[in-house]
Each structure stands twice: as C-alpha cells, then as structure tokens.
Amino acid sequence: MRESLIRQISEYTPCNAQEAADRDTILRLLRTQEDIFLRENPVAHMTASAWVTSPDRTKVLMAYHNLYHSWAWLGGHADGCEDLLSVALKEVREESGILDVRPVSERIFSLEVLTVDGHEKKGSYVASHLHLNVTYLLEADDRQEVRVKEDENSAVGWFSPEEAVEASTEPWFQERIYRKLNEKLRILNRENT
Asked: What's the total number of domains in the chain?
C-alpha cells in the first residue's frame, strides 16, 4: 500500500509552489521513515483530511476543533493505516456523525505539510511536529444529521465555501489551504458543466 501511495503522490500535479515543495517533503519522508504512518514518529507522521461538499458543491462541512479553537476541515492521523482515503472517510464519519459520505474521486485533491505546535492531549504533552497531509474531495448530503465528537470538536456545520474560509481563525489555513481548496472546487465545477 505504501508504494501505491508513493506512486499516487509522485504522479500528483501540484497546483502551486506550496504543493510542489510539500510533495517533495512528503515523498522524501515516506521513502525514508519506516514509522511515518504512526504517531510515535516524533517528528512527522501521515494524516488524511477531507474537503466535504454537498452534492451541488454549494456547501462544505466544517467542525469547530477544540484544540485549535477554530472551524476547520475534518481529518486525522493514519495510525498505521496506509490507505489514506479510508482514513479520511473514517475521520469524517467519526468527527461529524455523517455516515453516508463518499469520494468524489479516489484521486488526491490536495497535499500539505502542516505544522502542529506542542500541546496537551489527554493530560500528556505532545511535542511540536509535522502532519504530512493528503486531502481528498468527499461528498455528503447536507441534510444528514450531524453530531459533535466531544473529545475533539464542539460543533459541526455546513458553510458556503466562502463562509468556511471566514469561519476559520487560522490565517495560514485560510490563505494556504481553504482558499486553495475552494479554487480547486471552482475549477472542478467548471470542468463538469
């Protein structure tokens, strides 16, 4: 499975300089770090995120993350699983309560290296580290009931793509991630009309 992921990332066409640089970093660490899919790697580990849209692409799903005190996309740690699409799907189901979620495509939608500041989690200190993140475009009916995952978030909701950017309190994510994902979504919508 790791070789398949390396191949997918190698064949991925970055949309900007951030993705090009991050793709190189992710590939280098995937090829050299045996435990890169585990949180036990203290420097960096693989994660998967999802940009979840309504079928008509007018809404995106966000959760208010307790750790970051911000509205954000859904996703999480690989925890040993090398199938990152399945990780993204599992995280959306766990973090939002939405069970009927599916990939728009099995292809990678976006790549990011994310910095995580040191923090307390469940009474233990977690040192600063990197998340080597693969993002997938997923789809779910926005009429499904949502629920919070109390140990991770305190709210879940649907936003217009523009409102999703504004709801975030993290400037780097607003600029480098959410606006980028929305632009990719606009391009996809144009291609499909």
From this structure: 1
Q: How much helix, strand and coil, in percent to the nearest 5, is found in the chain?
A: 35, 30, 35
Give the pLDDT confidence of 79-134 residue by residue, as tens digits: 999 999 999 999 999 999 999 999 999 999 999 999 988 888 888 898 899 999 99
CATH number at residue 95: 3.90.79.10
Question: Using an 8 Å Cβ cutoff, are 68 and 98 in contact?
Answer: no
Q: How far apart are CA 136 and CA 48, in angstroms?
A: 8
- DSSP code, position 180: H
The whole-angstrom separation of Cα 90 and Cα 149 is 13
Domain of residue 77: give its range. 2-191
Residue 50 CB neighbour total at 10 angstroms: 29
Q: Which residues of the chain have pLDDT under 50?
A: none
Burial of 49 (C-beta count, 10 Å sphere; 0-12/13-18/19+): buried
DSSP run (H or E) holding 156: strand 153-159
